[in-house]
Amino acid sequence: MTTNQWVIPFYKKQFEWLRDAEAGMASYLQSDADKIEEQIGGKFETMLDIGAGVGSIARTLDARGISMTTLELVPELVEAARRRSPKSIDIHEGDFYTYEFSKPFDVVSYFDGFGIGSDDDQLKLLERMKSWVTDEGSLLIDIYHPHYWRTIAAGQKMKIDDAERIYSFDETESRMVDSWWHKENPDEIVTQSLRCYTVDEISSLCEKAGLTITAIFPGGAMDFDNWTYVETAPLSACLSYRIKLKKK
């Protein structure tokens, strides 16, 4: 199975096995929307969110008056987003590498999912995202940090709703590996694998795409000793960090 062949089966099963992921998340989503507006640092009117899932953050920002557009590959997630979202959100189903938009956006984002393919794939995606943003616009992308997945998360196992999962790390390819199975069918395993980048590595890739990192925002981390989530961890210890990008 090539890297990209796992994408639809994994996210489809994840969606099936998790219960209502938005239940009890209203406060978190408002906090995340606050962060997005703060990270952009100025007024913006239009935003494209790719890998949007069921559209949770799009609905939160739409309620704040942002004209939201989403792009998602997995049909089941797109269908759920359309059921739950107001007509004001422009929801698209398609592949990041082939889909076309007729006009650029003030902000283009990719949260919690960058790194699906090879470095060449990521470079192509960055170039496409650059073409989707206005000349003065910004991109926000979450990047997985290799140190966390190599030294903190690898080997950790947990249960979530009807699923169980275990983390590992592919040292050769610098990829986090996240394997899931239904608690009643442990032999049916689906796995996601995402490329992790140091700041220097992602900076170099962005430069090749004609983009410059203008800000870095460390994300959170799981404290596996106490089984608590720390909202903001040091850059060296966070599971992912968010980069803000501008056209060169």
TrEMBL record:
Swiss-Prot/TrEMBL keywords: Methyltransferase, Transferase
Gene Ontology MF annotations: methyltransferase activity
Biological process terms in GO annotation: methylation
Signal peptide: none
Pfam families assigned: Methyltransf_23 (PF13489)
Coiled coil: none
Protein name per Swiss-Prot or TrEMBL: Class I SAM-dependent methyltransferase
